[in-house]
Every structure is written in C-alpha cells, then in structure tokens.
Amino acid sequence: MQNVKTGLNSIVKYLSTKKEVGRRRIGLLVDGPNVLRKEFNVNLEEIRDVLKEYGNVKIGRVFLNQYASDKLVEAIENNGFEPIICSSDVDVRLAVEGMELVFNPTIDTLALVTRDADFKPLLSKANEHGKETILFGVEPGFSAALRNSADYVIILENNKMNFYGEDFYTNAPEKSQHPGEVEAIPE
Question: What GO annotations for molecular function exist for this entry (predicted)?
C-alpha cells in the first residue's frame, strides 16, 4: 500500500503546480459498482485528500446500486461523501448528475472515479464548456477512450499509481500505450 500513498503524494504535488489563482471548485462523482470492489481496493479518502490539495471538493457523491450493503453506505457517509442509491441504472443517474455539474457555475472542475467508457461524452461535454476534468481509474479494464478524454488521469493498478498528463505526453494515442509511473516524494 505504500506505493499508492507515495504515488498520491506525487500527484498532489503535480496537481498543486497546476492551480490557477484561487482554489478550484471540484465536483467529484464516483461510479460505485464499477470501482468500489474488493479486488480494486479503491480508497475514497485518499482520492478526496488528493483533490483537497488541488481545490475545494464542493460536491462528493458516490453512486451505488440497490444492492449496496448498509456497511458500504455507512463507510461512504463516514468519509464525507453523499451516497446516491439508484434503483435503476447507475450510469444514467451519474451522467445526469455530471451534466448538472457541467452547467453549475459554482463548479469549475469535474472529477470522476470510473473505468467505464460510457462517461466519455460527459468528459467531452465538460471540456467543451470550459470545465477542467480529472479522472481516477482502475486497471484492469480502464477504457483507453475514457483516459484520453480527460485533462488529468490517475490510474490505480497493482497498488501503484500511474499518472497520464499533458506534461508527460504530446499526443493522446501515446497516453494509452505508455504509462508514466510517478516517483516517490520524500515525506
């Protein structure tokens, strides 16, 4: 787990160099059924901590299906997120909420935690309307099309964190083929 933490510190440092004057106002949406699985070991608290260094997380919502356990819902609430229980398709509800954030003038950065290519149009629309986009994803199964649609991409894979960003690559096709593993930063 140490590799993930040092990777997070590296990403915090990198994102903090990208701050414009003033802090970014972030809307964070998490695709629960897609990434909150035991095999992925996603830590929402660490993701939130990274984003807090970059700006203020104004909205933090975790979308879950109707089969989510009470224990999971409680853990999400205890971490300061709003659980959204969906009786129908989680993707549709997340996309609708995402579009609301795109047109919300109090949010200037949209952050997504997902692997699902279904959210590529949401990222494209956010970019089209001047919103900055940050994408957290998990391997295996992280869509290359989705990765190449965000301004910043942070990938959790095998307890390591890889970063895809404009400063490391000159064009999108290379992004999906050559991950840049972040280096540890001394604490």
Answer: RNA nuclease activity
